[in-house]
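note to self — DONT lose this again. spent like an hour looking for the file last time. sequence + predicted structure for the chain T wanted, 386 res
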Amino acid sequence: MLRKKSLMALFLAAVFWITAWMPVNANVSVSSPSVILIESSTGQVIYEQNSTERRSPASITKIMTLLLTFEALESGKVSLTDDVITSEYASSMGGSQVFLAQGEIQTLETMIKCIAIASGNDASVAVAEHIAGSEQSFVEMMNEKAAELGMTETHFEDCCGLSDSDNHYSCARDVAIMSRELTVKYPEVFNYTTIWMEDITHETKQGTGKFTLNSTNKLLKQYQYTTGLKTGSTSKAKYCLSATATKDGIDLIAVVMGAPDYKIRFADAQTLLTYGFGVCDIYIDPNQDSLSPLAVERGVAEEVTLKYEGEFRYLDTQGSDLSAVEKVVELPETVQAPIEEGSEAGRARYLLNGTEIGSVPILFGESVEKAGYLDYLRKAFGFFLL
C-alpha cells in the first residue's frame, strides 16, 4: 500500500511539473503563421504556434546587433560617446535607413537610436564596423552568440536583415531568446526603444541638417504597456515583430513572424500580450532576509556566514493562489571545515499546495580553513585567559 502511495505521489509531481512548464493550452486567435509568447524574467513559454519554424527575420535581426553592441559597451570595448564613422559601404545600404553620408560621424549613442527607433540599416552596418572592423567579422560574432544562447534555428548573413538569402534565417523561439537576453541583461535598451520620435543632426560636406527619427513600432501608440522592441519587414519575410511590454511587475515578449500585413503584425502581438497579462501571476521572493550563521566543526572559525544565491521567481498561469506558497529552508545543524566560499550549504525550497515549485541554493558567504595544531593551541590559550 505504501509503495502504491509513493508511486502515486511521484506521478502527481511529474504531472505538476509537465503542466507548469508547458505552454498554456489557450484559444488564442492570431493570423500570423509563427508566434510565441514568453514571460521575460523566467523565460517560461506561455503560448506558441510553429515557433521553431525557420523564417526570414528581416530587421528583427537587429536585436542581435543591439545585443552585441550593449555587450561591447559593458566590456568597455566601446563607449556611448565614441565617434562612429560611416563608411562608403555602410552609407550604401538600402531599405530602412537614416541617410548617413560617407564619412559622416555620429556618436555611438546616436547610432543606437538610429537602429532602435528608425531601424537604420546604414547605422547598423556602421556600428558593426566600429565594433568588429567589418560587417563580416561582426556577423561571425552574431552567429557565435546565437550558438551560445542555444538559438538552434538561426543563422545570420548580415547585421541588419536586408539579406534575402535562404541562409539568413531564424524562428520565433530564437528571436524570443535573443530578445530576452538583450532586455534582461541590458534593460537600458528601453531608454531607446520607447522613443517615439527624436531629431538627430547630419553634419556632412554638404552642410548641416536635421533628420527626424520616427519609431517603426506602432505599438508604442497603440498599446499602453509597450516598452519595445523591434520591427522588421521584407517581401520575403513579410511582417515581423518582437514586442516587449510590462504591466503589474510582469514582463512579456511576444514574437510575430510572417504576418501578411503590418496591421495584423501589431494586432497579433497585442492579442498575445493581452492574453499573457490576463493569465500570468508571478511570485517573487527577493531573498533579502538574513540567515543565521552555521556552526563550524574543526575550523579556524567557529561559525560561517550564509547567503542566498539570488531571488526566487515562479510564474503561474493556472490561477493558483500564490499567497499559499511556503518557503522551507533546509540547512544542516553544523558543517565541517574546510569550507569554500560560494559552495552550497543548503537550499530554500518553495512549496505550493504541498508540491515543490522550485528552489534557490543557499551558499557559504566566506571560506573557513581547517584548524591545525597551532589553531587549537591558540583557542585553548584564549579559553585559559578567560
